[in-house]
Amino acid sequence: MPKKPRTPSTTQFSDQILIATKPRKLHLLLVRRIIVLFFSYFKDLVGREVTVELKNDLAIRGTLHSVDQYLNIKLENTRVVDQDKYPHMLSVRNCFIRGSVVRYVQLPPDGVDIELLHDATRREARGG
Amino acid sequence: MPYLGPEDIYLSTSLASYLDRKLLVLLRDSRKLMGTLRSFDQFANAVLEGACERVIVGDLYCDIPLGLYVIRGENVVLIGELDLEREELPPHMTRVSVAEIRRAQKAEREATDLKGTMRKRMEFLDLD
User: Fold this and answer.
1) Which of A102, A107, A128 has the alpha carbon at shortest distance from A37?
2) A102-106 and A49-54 strand pairing
């Protein structure tokens, strides 16, 4: 029995719903492109001071050294935000953080060009 | 934002700079392992030689030797490079034997369980 053809969402919906109702294959490609968008965005931030908050509530401040396609992060000159709670981290100065455990990456306020990011995201969502 | 070619997407933050160094590995179950990194792969799976687990309970700590360990990458939270010139732990912490740290762990676990049941009882009574 032939599968019912799925229709792409129309342009009258917002970008959010556009992403949610796209056919699955296209959606995965879009997610891939958004990840690449963030990867290139983080590559621009290399050398800036960021605070990475992990899913286990550990927050680490440091200089962004490198990032990869999995959004794994390497920080240099690290110091833990609440040092007394994490005594084992005292002598750690450089670290590698697995992308899957990151909850937030707190950025310097002047590190974000909001308009540029908005345009890039809109372009990706539209498929341009 | 710089345009990424197809080959740029496959760059990876390498753990190669950490090879043969003494590292602290934080795991998702909040265990802290220390050892020398001998091998790794793209999933952050790691081989640690001379691994030991550093158990910290309050101001007490103990290093339990484990030997050669292969760690599955999905359990890794953070891999930190230990700075040999700095103290690994705050000076007020005391090193104790394995038996004593196990007792301290048990006591801490029982205290949190008791706190949990007390809280549940209070919530049941719905006291303000």
Assistant:
1) A128
2) antiparallel
Task: Tell whether B7 is within 8 A of chain A (Cβ).
Answer: no
Report pTM: 0.77
**Above 90 in pLDDT, residue A128?**
no
- The answer, yes or no, to whether residue B76 has pLDDT greater than 50, is yes
Strand (E) or helix (H) holding B55: strand B46-57
Q: What structural domains does chain A harbor?
A: 1-44 (no CATH), 46-109 (2.30.30.100)
Over the stretch A21-70, which tens digit does the pLDDT of each residue have?
556 777 788 888 888 888 888 888 888 999 999 999 999 999 999 998 88
Per-residue 3-state assignment (H helix, E strand, C coil) for A97-128: ECHHHEEEEECCHHHCCHHHHHHHHHHHHHCC
Which amino acid is present at B71?
I
**Chain B positions in Cβ-Cβ contact with residue A96 (cut-off 8 Å):** 13, 15, 18, 44, 78-80
Nearest to B10 among A58, A69, A94 (CB): A69
Q: Which residues of A touch B30 (CB under 8 A)?
A: 56
Is residue B91 classed as helix, strand or coil in its secondary structure?
Answer: coil
Plot region of B102 (φ>0 → left; ψ -120 to 50 → alpha; else → beta): alpha
Q: How far from the centroid of its chain's Cα atoms is residue B11's Cα?
A: 27
User: Which ipTM did the prediction report?
Assistant: 0.80
